[in-house]
Amino acid sequence: MGYKELLEGFYRNYEEAGVDKVDGILAKYAGNEKEVMKKLDEKYNCSYFKSVFELTAIFKQYDPSKVDSIPALLGKNKGREQEVVAKVREKYGAAPAAATPASGTSHAARVRALFEKYDPSKAANTDAFLAKYKGQEEAFIAKLVEKYGPEPGGAAAPAAA
Fold it and tell me: What pTM does this model have?
């Protein structure tokens, strides 16, 4: 499930007219999709995208066949997204820790993987970024996770459309 499908599902539930604007939104905010989703959750006073990401992580680990049904599930429960997440957590357990790196994974490998997944144009500059944030690598990685989404392998973020 990519960003396009996520945004279309959101707009089908919260503002049908917005479905026609999804391609334009993705083009305008390319590379900042997660920020757009966060702002939409705030604007509509809901937790749609937060719920999508958590449900995706849970279902990918425990029942992958249900990942594609998340937008429909949340659509049936508009305004009660967190209740749905709570019930799914009760049934399957919590989502896996999204940003827990494998033991021994270097900062360079982690940063490069984040850039390769979310902003490939910056991957070649990994060493320069790490030099700039020398001694603050974990804080830098935390900022990247906050901006882009979980580290690859965490399963909580959708693939870009």
Answer: 0.57
